[in-house]
Give the backbone structure.
Amino acid sequence: MTISVEERFDSRSRTTGSDGSIRLRYIVLGTDDDQEAIEALAGVAPASFRGLYRGECEVSDLFVDEDNPEESIMEAVVPYQPLGKTKSESYEPPVAGDVVESFDMTSGTEHLTQSIRTLGRYLRSDAPVEKALDCQGGIKWNGQECEGVDMEFGIFAWPERWYIADADMTWAYKRAIARCYKRINKHSFRGWLPADVLLYGARGSKRVQGDWELTFEFHAIQTETNIRIPGLPEGAEEDDTPHILIPVKRGWDYVWLRKEPKEDTAAGKLGEVPVEAYLEQLYKMVDFDQLHIGV
């Protein structure tokens, strides 16, 4: 007995949204046995379709000939859903003590007046001097000051969704969360060095199960070491020209420069050079232990 599977003309119905799905519809000819129809479908219906994953197949009778089963006709529906949403996978709702994590690479914006290094200086062919003005890494010098430029910098962001027993969600604990909000870590946290992690947000809601869903959002910037201002010339490993060296800049610390006018004799112009650097702490530090979510 030969079993054939053909996709219906009205197949591929779709639902939209974050849990969107697609349903492929088939006609199965040559059997009235559910298991045989499902096994035949497995060889035709793809395991994944348009980024979605196959769920449990559903079969039903359209026409059954008990005397000649090979003349029977069955209908089949194959759902495709996001991974983890298929009916074949059991789902257990989170309970108190569970945690769900994810992460996201995002960015912030900072106005910079100093570059890491100047890669080139170029003159007009009829310029009266031999070299363009050496701005010592200063950006967009206008004759009076460096105007600078807005630049994005990378932030590692991640939420942690915790499920907390109602008895633990006291006002004392809520005040502890408030004390940590918009503060940076005093000690190492999730492998990040002190002052690298900012508690950017926190929110909680009580669930019908009686416990609390509590979400923390953290933003982290990596600590940098041996920041040289101005930076080394392109291709150089070391240089004895005057510079400022900042041994350590923790993630959320801020560096600003004081500059002074200086004449560039080769260019015949007055420029500006950094003479002092200041390392500032902008956020208060707290011990994230009081969040009771480990370190």
In short: The chain has two domains: 4-81, 95-295. The first helix runs from residue 34 to 42. Residues 4-81 form one domain.
